[in-house]
Amino acid sequence: MSAASVVCFFMAVLHIKPSSSDYDSGVYWCESRNGSASNSISITVVPGGAVILQSPVLPVMEGHDVSLQCKTEDSSELPADFYKDGSLIGTEPTGHMTIHHVTKSDEGVYKCHISSRGESPPGWIYVTEKPITTPGPPSSDFTAFSTFYYVTLPVLVLVLFLLSLGLLDHWRKKSRDADPAAVCPARTPEDVSYGQIVIRPNRSRELPPEPEVIYSSLR
């Protein structure tokens, strides 16, 4: 049975016994009885003493960090050069590199090289897109609170304000009807105006005497 056709059952655990050949190198995945398949992983078997690049075998989600470790069987802290798609991306003195906040552009084939030890087999790093989460509908409690806060409460405040104005106006009218002084308030000295009236005795005018009138009769 080839490595690419291994089917996992029960607990989906597959044990590969140590081997001195590269027969077990290949791509592995699991399939369920209903035909569903898992993500595939690549396993490379190298001879003892060779350079190994430890990288994630499962797809990495966007935004996460990825750690790469270049090592040999007898040492794990040697200076190493790291390559992506055949291009040098950096040299680390301890053979450890971290790629922060990976994106789809970080997806590709990686390998490393240790001087005087050799080069590691290539390994794929897969990056999956971060799922877009859409906010769900607001809960009924939040909707009820929003309705009360933005609609009902302002209406209640307005009604109470108008009711207070009506009661205040009614109280003022009632107070004026019960207190006559409120209708005709007492005048203060500052409100009184004074004037001087002079009364003189009446002097009759002397008219000139009328001329004497002579009457005669005509026949």
From TrEMBL:
Ig-like domain: residues covered: 47-133
Gene Ontology molecular function, alphabetical: transmembrane signaling receptor activity
Residue spans crossing the bilayer: 148-168
Taxonomic superkingdom: Eukaryota
Signal sequence region: 1-21
PROSITE patterns xref list: IG_LIKE (PS50835)
Pfam families recorded: Ig_3
SUPFAM superfamilies: Immunoglobulin
Keywords tagged on the record: Disulfide bond, Membrane, Signal, Transmembrane, Transmembrane helix
GO BP term, pick one: immune response
Record-linked Gene3D superfamilies: Immunoglobulins
SMART domains membership: IG (SM00409)
GO cellular component: external side of plasma membrane
Protein name (database record): Ig-like domain-containing protein
